[in-house]
Amino acid sequence: MPEPLLEVKDLRVHFPTDDGLVKAVDGITFSVAPGETLGIVGESGSGKSVSSLSIMGLITRKQAEISGQALFRGQDLLQLPNEEMREIRGAKISMIFQDPMTSLHPYYKVGVQIAEAIRQHRDVSKKEAFDQAVDMLGKVNIPQPKDRAKQYPHEFSGGMRQRAMIAMALSLNPDLVIADEPTTALDVTVQAQILELIDRLKSEFNAAVIIVTHDLGVVAEYCDNIQVMYAGRIVEFGRTDDIYYRPTHPYTWGLLQSIPRMDELTERLNPITGRPPSLINVPPGCAFNPRCPYTFDRCRTDLPELIPVDGYHADACHLAKADKDRILAEEVLARR
Amino acid sequence: MGRYMIRRTLFGVLVLFVISMMTFLIFMKLPAGDPARRLAGRQPTPETLEQVRINYGLDQPFFTQYWRFAKGLIPLPGFWLDEKVYYSWVNRLPVKAEIADAIKYTGMLTAGAVVLWLLIGIPIGILSALKRRTWADRASMTFALFGVSFPTFWLGYLLIYFFYYRLGWAPPTGVDHGEGVWQTALDGKFILAWITLAVTSAAFYTRVVRGNMLETLSEDYIRTARAKGLTERRVTYKHALRASVTPVVTMLGLDVAGLLAGAVITEQVFVLPGLGAYAIRALEGQNFPPVMAVTLLAALFIVVANLIVDIIYAALDPRVRYN
């Protein structure tokens, strides 16, 4: 294993609200190596976006109780003074957001918005920054980047805007790009292009990428590793192949079974029954136990730890290895 | 844009035509009495009445009469408030000169009040959004609540009572004879009037700016700006401010037009000889030419302000394009 670029240790983000403490992220530990692509997968409310926003320092201690560590090249981002964090943000770690329709400022030209990011971190003239912005727009395959840079976001299509966001995120050659649901708001045909683009640029710029998504199907091709989150915790973690071909957590099984497949005539999909738990009153024991078809007594009382299944692959589930293998073979893979 | 402007201008002309027609009907044709009878004095002889009708053109057919007045509303030299038609039926003074004089006072009143309320309203609105849920925010919102609730006549008299009558800091109301508008302003006679108008309007602007600012600060593009590593100052005063203050332009245009058209109550309270006061006097005296002139002028202000607001808005918000 190479030296990790980002190491998150026991990150907890709790939001105090009038109804109680919302434990959006409740003790997650993971790391990202340089050049790696990590997929963070989970339903809405599983804490995947909140964890990436806290790493970026976009959720502040004013809004939430944050504990744990997020070591970026050995430096704890959660302890950095605002000013130092600001210098990392956008330059060393940048972010691509979910909705490109609302993520760009409607009053400023696209090129100007990218140039603004460049000028914030580099001592270049307005003209130079703008030229670099045009250059970046070209790199994300926007035709006639010179003219396009002078247009406003509303003159761009959704896919184009997301390209522009990617151009902005990569314009300072960051070490880490966090893409928070980068394709959710886009047409299916555009989704693949955007992921392809992120993948290509990642190698070109030699950056590590975290792709946050609710769609396990989308990220399969591009991720080295995947971690599955549920109710603020990581329930399964492994190489992409582990998650797709040898998943061991019932929640991951559920996610995989709810992906439609092109090569089979399935009458209907198998959704996971029930709803995600309230993050204020998380069920005792394993948070997934009320929805899990394999729950037994221990699941209702003991919180399962994330422990290795084989080598790199780990899960947080009380089921015995033999049972998991059997269920996987007989019920999960058989139905796929 | 060009076609849009032509269409808007034509529509504005139509609006002004309808208003002039209605004003004419209300004053000259509705049963408030025969205008000739009003003009001829008490118990006129039939001969006098007839003479008055002829003198004032009231014997002419309806449209001829209307056209006499309508002509004078065309804003071109030679037509605009032609003194042969537009003179006061009470004191024979030309309406043009009277309006030219009155508009100076109204203009001064409006200009000062607008500057003051923007200087108060916008910064307080921003501050209270940035310091949300602190005492500063609560104090601003209390000010805003009181401000919008104060009627101008009440606040105006209250200010006069304290600052003139009790404390003697402000000069007495009323314009000294022969004193120009600038001298009146230098004498401080506009100050309380400015404050009165400014407080009531600023309160409203404060609320709007605060609301816009809070809404803008939660926008995705503000998060993007932060994610770029911009300083909080730049995020707030460039990205958020521009988007929150732009909508204020719409309000401002119409408010200014409204005030120019006659801050009737404020002018009455502070005894300022502006357009509003002039209109009130003309109405009381059933003095038709000034009423017609002031009404149309007010309508013109509103129509033009709307047009200007639309042009400015399109310049400020690139998403807005007219065609």
Label this structure with key terms.
heterodimer, A: alpha/beta, eight-stranded mixed sheet, B: mainly alpha, 14 helices, 72% helix
What does it look like?
The complex is a heterodimer of chains A (336) and B (323). With 336 residues, chain A is of the alpha/beta class. Helices cover 34% and strands 22% of the residues of chain A. Chain A has an eight-stranded mixed sheet with strand order 6-7-8-3-9-10-12-11, with helices on both faces. In chain A, strands 2-1-4-5 form a four-stranded antiparallel sheet. In chain A, strand 4 and strand 5 (75-76) form a beta hairpin. The longest helix of chain A is centred in the middle third of the chain and has 18 residues, at 188-205. The two termini of chain A are 33 Å apart. The model of chain B has no long low-confidence stretch (mean pLDDT 87). Chain B is 72% helix and 0% strand. Chain B is mainly alpha-helical. Chain B contains 14 helices and no strands. Chain B has helices at 2-29, 35-39, 46-55, 62-71, 95-130, 135-149, 152-166, 181-186, 191-217, 220-227, 232-260, 264-269, 275-284, 288-316. Chain A binds chain B through residues 56, 58, 82, 86-91, 94-95, 97, 99, 102-107, 116-117, 120-121, 152, 154, 165, 168, and chain B through 219-221, 223-232, 234, 239, 242-243, 246, 316-319.
